[in-house]
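Exercise (ungraded).
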Amino acid sequence: MGIDIETFVACSLGKWRSQRSAHHLAFAHFEEIRSMIEIEGLAKDDPAVLALCESQGVEPERIATPFKMSWEGETDWDEDDVLKGETILVPVPSQDSENSGKLLRDQGYAETIPAAGDYTITPDGTFILTTGYDRAAAEEKIWFASDNLRFRVSLIKTSDGKGVTTSSLSSEVRIVPKDK
Amino acid sequence: MGIDIETFVACSLGKWRSQRSAHHLAFAHFEEIRSMIEIEGLAKDDPAVLALCESQGVEPERIATPFKMSWEGETDWDEDDVLKGETILVPVPSQDSENSGKLLRDQGYAETIPAAGDYTITPDGTFILTTGYDRAAAEEKIWFASDNLRFRVSLIKTSDGKGVTTSSLSSEVRIVPKDK
């Protein structure tokens, strides 16, 4: 069978130590990013959630568990650069499929305006998210190897979706189990 | 639909520049590997192919396109270490499925004895290979983003398949198209 978005979000809650490698393909550069990621559930009637729904024209009764993701880390690309941010994410399951829908976020990775991506969860439990931005498109695959270990492969594509500029792998180890 | 193993092998032929990042999870170490990989088709009656079939008890008339993979590269883990090797791979499609079967190889990545893995090709064209070794298990996912760009995610697992010791992402760009 597969899992639904509520289950996927529930499995993702907690604090994760992330080790990420990015490949900048045009010049074969390696980038190393170390970060801590925290994923927290939010109430469906949280004011920030309701505001995001309104900005994207989505009726709040259609949403599944919203959550907040915050991160803080560093990259070897620019030693002085501290990566830090947070974003609110709101899944909106499709009305005709249990395993796909829209994912609203109040800030994209690649741009700073609200964005909506399309997600689908494959029968083997891989969450696939594609998001189009003005000048780029992103494709992310996230899956669990075990309860406290998940992987995320991201591709940053040119806006026509044909070229890939950056690929990356994140290995994420949960350090605070969600039920503690 | 999906693609069959013959198509997957045909798409893989040629010379690839590989940029690979490995995450050694227990101590959060990053490893960078740069290599050149060459994939060449072999005749089904190549003596080395027939010998591998015999050693694994496989009738040669059941096999699909065999191929040879050779690589040469370097890792930043040990600056003096030159990675170099080659292996012969022989797909044996399952008799009851178009998209799965065994993949014989005369040398594994993790050990130096002949090995046989199980492959399946998902409807979205991802080739998934799982191989059990004496003291480890490997899971590889390979897919094409475009004709000349493919990605490979590998997990090295403990032999019970529950823990992951190493994850890696390879971004592979073809530098000599197969039809040149």
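Further reading is listed at the end of the chapter. For now, observe: The helical segments of chain B are 5-12, 47-55. Chain B has two helices and ten strands.
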